[in-house]
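hiii so my PI (J.) wants the whole complex modelled not just the main chain, which honestly fair. so below is everything: two entries, each one labled with what it is. i double checked the lines twice but i was tired so who knows lol
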Amino acid sequence: DTEVTQTPKHLVMGMTNKKSLKCEQHMGHRAMYWYKQKAKKPPELMFVYSYEKLSINESVPSRFSPECPNSSLLNLHLHALQPEDSALYLCASSQVGQGDFGGANVLTFGAGSRLTVL
Amino acid sequence: AQKITQTQPGMFVQEKEAVTLDCTYDTSDQSYGLFWYKQPSSGEMIFLIYQGSYDEQNATEGRYSLNFQKARKSANLVISASQLGDSAMYFCALRNYGQNFVFGPGTRLSVLP
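here's the output for the full assembly
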């Protein structure tokens, strides 16, 4: 079983819907991440939550909004998405944050949430 | 700036044989880490192996080893005794100190029976 849990695994939504992707980690990691991955492409970083501070990739549109209720949860709220937002959304966590270094920076990924926007 | 290059979009290997997946990187930093991830068709990214820029020994993890040539800025992944379950996308990634991960474009490996 993966130690980073993402729900739902699949989501189909219309462009006017509001939905959320949820991510939970049970490893006591200090940093959590959301990545977007299009088919046959590498993951692209969207958000980082590290040491209670949220960092945003400036290219991410405002229709995506992260929420971190506690250090184990990082949700992604979706509103008024476009068909081009259809992708695999991967959540990850790491033992340490951006300011630290070493093998402890390994990203542990969840199984992903596959989003389709109609 | 950080950059990862994986020049092999696709690779084929016979079951039980060894295969090398190429990765070259570009960074001006002295402190960095190199990572390899496997992504099966199910979508989950699975960590395979890590090499730090100051590590003198090549990293090994079971059937995976990393051929680290710092002067050439290459970090090739070697998979020994390939298995059918090794068929997947493989991503090389670089992380400079204090920076985010940068992933390469990936190599799709197909293991033939």
